Amino acid sequence: MADTAVRNAAVADAFTKPGTAGSSITNSTLTDTQLMASRLTEDVGGGRNEVRVLHEQYDDLHQRSHEVEWRAATAARVKSSTATLLSDVSELGFAWRDIARLVGVSVPAVQKWRKGEKASGDSRKRLASLLAACDIITDHYMVEEIASWFEVPLSSSAPVTPLDLYAEDRADLVFEFASGHTDPEALLTQFLPDWREHYRSDFEVFEASDGRYSIRVKD
Question: Can you give the pLDDT at residue 151?
Fold first, then answer.
């Protein structure tokens, strides 16, 4: 990196000197400036490739670290009773219908748990996993009001929310969205490759002259 910086400064300096371009350069002979610029281009190109590979490796490592931490946090949470798990999820602000969707059961099933009936082992683990995911997002990414955050669309271009991602077993994308390291529309593409066409609309919302909002056909 130091060599590259020195070379870069030398190139910049060389191009500011009178007579560098034109008068002393022939078609058959490369000047020191050209050679240095050529080497700099090669160095920068190689550096970009290294950074690209490193970026991909760290993306993969970050995703795997989320998964490992999530499993460990779930194992700790699942020791609690169904009643405790359900109470903890409710205290976060999730509606019962959303809890049912995130856990993958019906609303009546959640209502039975509220009355004291036991959940299956799988349902209990899913409750614990939801809480563990919320713990990770809150602790690492300082998300306040987690239940409300789950309802925030990833992009104004589509109504997909973290709740939708999680309900479709894409917690990995939920963690990525929370981290802020990935463009939301890139996450949408991972989730639904044809999302732009899927959510395309011929209508738009606009504010009329009286201050009220209405819908009209796009131009």
Answer: 96
